[in-house]
Design a protein that fits this description.
2 copies of one chain form a homodimer. Helix content of chain A is about 35%, strand content about 25%. By secondary structure, chain A is of the alpha+beta class. In chain A, helix 3 packs parallel to helix 4. A 7-stranded mixed β-sheet of chain A has the order 10-17-12-16-13-14-15, sandwiched between helices. Chain A has a 6-stranded mixed β-sheet with strand order 1-7-8-9-11-4, sandwiched between helices. Chain A folds into 2 domains: about 280 residues, 4-Layer Sandwich (L-amino peptidase D-ALA esterase/amidase), CATH 3.60.70; about 120 residues, Ubiquitin-like (UB roll). The first copy, chain A, has 12 helices and 17 strands. In chain A, a hairpin with a 2-residue loop joins strand 7 and strand 8. The interface between A and B is large, with 66 and 66 residues.
Chain lengths: ~425, ~425
């Protein structure tokens, strides 16, 4: 970690993040129902930059080889100098849909651009939902006038609702920081729930800010922050064809444009962005399919960050560990076994395992005493549990966030398309 | 694959494998109840080589860094010139038990050796069950006279029962081949059920044969075969601290000792061993925790075997794919998405996906037609389903075996220790 990043990470602690509805100067938003797949619920969201502003954007996308048509289009359109709108539909992912799917993604952009009177190259398109079917253009075309007519500053909760698939709650977070005397807002929405895994843990996340910032700096902070937030969460180890994280900056706050990555303005912005992304990422885990518990896996004392990450994710993705959490069974053996098979060359005798602050395993053996087991059992009844695995060999660390594996995960996913 | 291996693999098809009880000349076996963890069921198995024979053995073990005490002991004792007995307990894994655990594993060997009058270095010890507690010596000591007194040729079904943990059925398989005019038997038992994943997919498997074979040849075939059987199955992607696969050869069949890996005798033995291991491996999957379906994932057309393996296991381990099978939902998108995120550099347009012989995806898009969906739905109602992913880029392949992910998997694993 460079000094700039260390500073940004330290700054996060002073950022206050709220989950309440918000507005971001320079953006108007709206949501509507197309009926494309879901009946009688919002499933199409429009985020429009005020016409007089030239917003900048950055994106991080799925590394799945079967990347969906809207992802391909987003990557292309991010090359434009400016972004005027983002359109997102839920229910149909428009993935694995070939040439026709790509054409339709482009048609979504064109419909949006025509309605707002700018170029389709200035529209970013996201889709989430089932893989295979192509997005339907007619229902989108039909509701577009309504959508544009409804545009307003404070519609973010509707946006958060419209992008949901199996999510049970709308998820949004925002923070404010002062940058060179100007109050800057960072506000974001996310939908997650299934197929949540590194790399790119969520399906669709959109963060808007009124900061004035150069695209490379925005891109830098988005990548840095996603590697420490969305890429640290896992629900089922699967990665979607559509995973997309977008950041759009309207410049409306009027701060001197951020051009230097190492400046204090840059660090303040990075901290605010990261605080919001981390909050959104945690909300995705908490609303994981069937999740009843939120679990933080801290790996410490590693030789390097990659080793720590390997161990943390092996634990976080282990179905045996996750079912033990669901069953409120403080089965530390499964945590240790998952660490042991992770591929990280750890030394068993140096490993220590903690549940919250309770040490349950040290020097290659369980910590003796029936009170340890009793205390561990009490900790496992909590809604939020912190697991720490200290490898005892270095000073690097990594934190993964995950949830338990419940009956409901199976239920939701066994019947998703029906 | 070398010509020797190709020949052995071809020979497998002519090997008849039975799941019926069997005997292996040169071995007597017995099982007893210690009450150590389970009440009123067999939980201790003894496999004894006839005193006048010098049996040879080979083993493949977990690569988990937290390898259990009995695994450490097995590795040491395999260095002995001969093996006289194998002792296996179920219920307590004696893993993560430090020095004391190791002493107790050794004590298990000593008790066995004393009862049968040979050296403790000639005993292989296996344990399976929960991680953490140390194996209890007193109950083993108490039942040892009974165990030795019960030794007989045809007790293999009891052995298969005694090594079970969450297994629902005892699992055994055997085959016979002619080697230089002598009838040779290969008979094995296995317990699996949870923590089943490459590398070393099962907790405990023991294969005995009366073939006369040099240890390096036995070791070679055991490794080759396990890489094509136990290392191709996965239930939950977890790997245990205790995974052990042992092969013991009594030499009682009287065939000319197999010393040349390339000889026809060697290939015939290799084929029989592999046929039995593959059958045992499949039985483990079919009895996977909560499994209701048996799924074969064939990846073909890969550039090399490693790529094929990467794709096959990404699909086989995907909770989203596995819940779709449980829900009888022919959600091909999840299969394609799992292949796409596997890390294998595949070309989406070249990939084809089949359920049994039905092509559902080709040229980067789903095969159109409502009859495709109907047929796929019918296939998903079967108990056994074959998935083929052709990558269209080469001629290498890999087959993985897995099962679905059901409510019962969660149920079993949420309450395992209670």
């Amino acid at each position: 970690m460079t000094p700039v990043h260390a500073e940004a990470e330290k700054n996060i602690r002073s950022v206050v993040v709220n989950r309440t509805p918000f507005t971001v100067p320079g953006f108007r938003v709206a949501a509507a129902s197309t009926g494309m797949r879901y009946k009688e619920r919002l499933d199409l969201a429009l985020i429009a930059v005020d016409p007089e502003l030239n917003a900048r954007a950055a994106g991080v996308f799925t590394t799945n080889r079967f990347c969906a048509a809207p992802v391909t289009l987003c990557k292309e359109n991010l090359k434009s100098a400016r972004v005027k709108a983002v359109i997102i539909n839920a229910g149909i992912a428009n993935a694995c849909t070939g040439e026709e799917g790509y054409k339709r993604a482009k048609e979504m952009a064109r419909l949006t651009a025509d309605a707002l009177d700018f170029s389709h190259r200035e529209v970013l398109v996201c889709s989430t939902g089932i893989i295979g079917p192509q997005v339907e253009i007619d229902p989108i075309s039909r509701v577009m006038p309504e959508l544009v007519g409804k545009l307003r500053r404070d519609g973010w909760e509707d946006v958060a609702r419209a992008i949901m698939t199996t999510d049970t709650v709308p998820k949004m977070a925002n923070a404010r920081v002062e940058i060179s005397g100007k109050l800057v807002t960072v506000g974001g929405v996310v939908k997650g729930s299934g197929m949540i895994a590194p790399n790119m843990a969520t399906l669709i996340a959109l963060v808007c800010t009124d900061a004035a910032i150069q695209p490379p700096i925005l891109d830098h902070w988005l990548r840095w922050s996603s590697s420490r937030s969305f890429n640290c969460i896992t629900i089922d180890g699967d990665m979607s064809t559509n995973d997309t994280l977008l950041a759009v900056a309207s410049g409306r706050a009027g701060n001197p444009i951020i051009t230097d990555i190492g400046s204090s303005d840059s660090r303040a912005f990075g901290a605010a962005l990261h605080a919001v992304l981390l909050e959104l990422a945690k909300m995705v885990v908490m609303d994981g399919e069937g999740a009843s518990k939120f679990i933080e896996i801290h790996v410490t004392g590693a030789a390097d960050r990659d080793s720590a990450r390997t161990v943390a994710l092996a634990i976080a993705n282990s179905p045996l560990v996750k079912t033990a959490f669901f069953g409120e069974d403080a089965n530390w053996g499964r945590v240790v076994a998952a660490a042991g098979r992770s591929g990280c060359p750890l030394i068993p005798e140096k490993v220590a395992l903690f549940f919250d602050d309770l040490c349950v395993f040290r020097n290659g053996t369980p910590v003796p005493g029936s009170e340890v087991e009793e205390k561990a059992s009490r900790i496992f009844k909590q809604k939020e549990i912190r697991v720490q695995v200290d490898l005892g060999t270095g000073s690097a660390g990594f934190t993964a966030y995950t949830c338990d594996l419940s009956y409901d995960y199976v239920k939701i996913n066994a019947s998703y398309r029906s």
